[in-house]
Amino acid sequence: MIAVLLFVAAFTADPVAAPPPPAATAAPARPSPLADNDLREFAAIAGRKVVGRPVGGPYATADKVLLIARDDKGFPVIAASIGFPTRQSLPAPPPTTLAVVRLHQRSETIVPGPTSDDLAFVAANKLPLFVIGEWARPAPMWEVAWVDEAVRYRTVGEVGEIGPWQD
Length: 167
Prior knowledge:
The chain is an alpha+beta fold. The protein has a single domain (about 30-155), classed as Cytidine Deaminase, domain 2. About 20% of the residues lie in helices and about 25% in strands. It is built from three helices and six strands; from the N terminus they run ααβββαβββ. It has helices at about 1-10, 35-50, 115-125, and strands spanning about 60-70, 75-85, 100-105, 130-135, 140-145, 150-155. A six-stranded mixed β-sheet has the order 2-1-3-4-5-6, with helices on both faces. β3 (about 100-105), α3 and β4 form a beta-alpha-beta unit. The chain is globular. It starts with a helix and ends in a 12-residue tail after the last strand.
């Protein structure tokens, strides 16, 4: 009899509220349009280590592209290393990418520096791009970033020291 009463009481009681829907997961934070110091220093050292190494694959004259992310401990790492056709705009990188390093085999500008494709990549993706020129030793390097609502670039020394922003 007690079992019947418990069953009836449970059946007539207010229904248990459904669990609340899971909270929407926050979208990953967009990377900063300006690289942190450790990313800049990492790009300067790791990027210059690649200078002069051949590019494998179907492209005779390819640019080298390194995608920089952070490992599970927060340290910068090279997430991907690929050859990419010269004189071609880079596609948008994966969302975990914090910066991109592009090594040009030849200078395509009269005054060495980032190409118009490099500047367009930063304008479209608001992501730091490090450009390294393989045509000289020591290899010159520039940081291209979205600064004050415009694409600007500056030189980066051999261990990450920086020059003034230029338009």
